[in-house]
Amino acid sequence: MHLRLEPTALAGAYMRVRALSEALAATLEPEDQCIQSMPDASPTKWHLAHTSWFFETFVLAGPGYARYREGWDFLFNSYYQTVGSMHARAQRGLLSRPTVAEILAYRRAVDEQVLHSLPHMSAAKRGLVELGLHHEQQHQELILTDIKHALSLNPLAPAYRDAGPTTDSVAQLPALRWVEDPGGLVAIGRATDAAGFGFDNEGPRHKQWLEPFAVASRPVSCGEYLAFMADDGYARPQLWLSEGWDAVQREGWRAPAYWRAPGQANEPWRVFTLDGLQLLDPSAPVCHVSFYEADAYARWRGARLPREAEWEHIAQALEVDGNLLPNSAPELVSAPLHPVPTPEAPSADPSGLAQMFGDTWEWTASPYQAYPGYRPPEGAIGEYNGKFMCNQLVLRGGSCATPHDHVRASYRNFFHASTRWQFSGLRLAKDLNG
């Protein structure tokens, strides 16, 4: 979504993004939209309300403006301390009221006022609308990942939707190749005057020195990860970071999240997806692994995870394309909503790299921290990214649940090392010197 903030184009993007959020929720019953399966997740209806709260708070509110409903600013604020207090995050699933219908009416009211005001807004205010749209796209991904986690806890393993797209038989997984880069002094990060949208944490653009390195031509597959498991990967402490080993023991991890072990030796593995329980596809990229699991697998392979500067450096020249969430509601029916197998010939791309964008977020070895020269924006918007730059790791590339026009090479996602409910996978890297 690369807009020039022209009111007509912005209005079109606004209606499209807002419609997609509601389309993602349309397959769910009201009962589905109320549940919260863990503190890190939120009910679907809360996402629909919070994204409207964002526009109401940062675009509409001002002198003479009356809030849509008394107290809703408390219910649907997420973490913006400078604009007021908020309901406890872990208790969002206890809010049976407002109802789904009331929240949808709230969205209509906010939409009407934003669209009415757009032609008269300043460029700065239109910039906040665009920020709000990208914020909503982040919550579109969370709608899918959060409801997937909730449905996975149901013993009946219900599907998010009635029927997803069917696939043909899987082709053979392409051999993994190493794509080498000489490194040197490279520029990464988003330039201040770059065209299109970018979050504040993507810049400023700056120089970093990279030693010669190589990255794998494709992500690690489920079949390759099964080999790690068969080699007692979860039982060998020498492969694990200390905190990772503690997590394995504490949580009882023996496979990626959502995998279902065979009942008998001759039965296949299954995996819970947004289309319900499916046979595990060994050719598809592995996903729903924590940073600890990604790091342990890389060690087992005698490799490592890429650093975020290496990832961005090799991705900057690539087209953003792949198995990403469609931008508009009518295209949802054909969206896989799950990683798909690597194409048979990734070398057809001049870079030799496959699936750099989409399918799974790729863990990097880099901590989420400020780039040199970074300054958070003034005011409440400065709470959006900067205050989370501690104790988290960077992921790159987007996933099958990331809106297509939301991701780019400079995009920095970030989660705690133990996170597994996101579509997170890995690509191997290695040093070429030493």
From TrEMBL:
* GO biological process assignments: ergothioneine biosynthetic process
Family annotation (InterPro entries) = CTDL_fold, DinB-like, EgtB, Sulfatase_Mod_Factor_Kinase, SUMF_dom, SUMF_sf
Q: Which residues form the Sulfatase-modifying factor enzyme-like domain?
A: 178-430
The keyword Transmembrane belongs to this UniProt entry's keyword annotation: no
Q: Which UniProt keywords apply?
A: Iron, Oxidoreductase
Q: Which domain of life is it from?
A: Bacteria
Q: Which residues form the DinB-like domain?
A: 16-142
* Pathway(s) annotated for this protein in UniProt: Amino-acid biosynthesis; ergothioneine biosynthesis
Q: Which Pfam families match?
A: DinB_2, FGE-sulfatase
Q: Cross-referenced PANTHER family, in alphabetical order?
A: HERCYNINE OXYGENASE, SULFATASE MODIFYING FACTOR 1, 2
The protein's name is Iron(II)-dependent oxidoreductase EgtB
Ranked from the top, the taxonomy reads: Bacteria, Pseudomonadati, Myxococcota, Polyangia, Nannocystales
